[in-house]
Amino acid sequence: MIWVILALLSAIIVSVLIYLSKKEIQRHESIEYATTMRFWMFALSLPLLVLANTYITTKALYLLYLASWFNVLGYWFLFKSVKHMDLSVVSPFLNLEVLFILLFAWVFYGESLSFLSLIGLFILLSGLLCLETTRKNIFKGIKKMFKEKYHWVVVLSSLFYALFKVISRYVLKYENIDLWFYLVITNFFVIINFFIAVYVIEKLNPFYVLKSKIKSINNLPLLVALNFSQMVNEYAAYKIAPKAVFVSALKSTYTFFSELWDFISRKNKSYKKLIISGIVVMGAIIALLF
After folding, report:
1. What whole-number distance in Å separates Cα of residue 12 and Cα of residue 8?
2. What phi and psi, each to the nearest 5 degrees, are found at residue 53?
3. Which of 17, 35, 125, 135 has its CA at 20 to 30 Å from residue 89's CA atom?
4. Are 236 and 242 in contact (CB under 8 A)?
């Protein structure tokens, strides 16, 4: 059950990252911030080539390049949502990734769940919707929620991340690609795509962006190290877990940790949100155990 520990470590790191990154992301353009972060993650992954088995099939290479575009879109949209919305709003919505992964893993390689596991996922998703709306009439709150632009940005981020992760699991588990080589290749493809996006969308030289952001992003080495550590833990779990959705469900417990950090830092504390985030965790545990 090593994958359980890896997935939980990933969840804790994500919650810390969201908390630490909030102010930095608000100070920078989303695509420029994301490009800088992924460039240094790629640089950090290069020494892993010494440990890596570099065997890879042509099919796996094509799939990883396709998946890298989903990763770029998910990463970019995530930063856009964190920049424009409150931390406690973004965190629950990202758990929609669990539902998308459940669907895509079933469609692409036939992974299914028991009835009780599906009940657990229903509890999880219901909890995140309750976290999102503070209205007494939850249905009116949900209706209003989906009319707002940046809520859809978070949903799209979850969708793209789910596609990336389902393809990554296929390559890691079923094409049996070495984890270290996967990290190097994926980060290489992602940074190339981000360079293209910066040049096409922002009309900027990506190397100029890197030069300017290395001085202006506070705690850059710490944020890069945390991002890379989170990626290692999560995809090591995806490679060995019995089902993809189990990893995603466990990772969704970062909602509880995010609410906890938010609860500790606020003067006006919301016990209701903290309790509901605990229910989200309970749903994840039920999905895993049954």
Report:
1. 6
2. -90, 115
3. 35
4. no
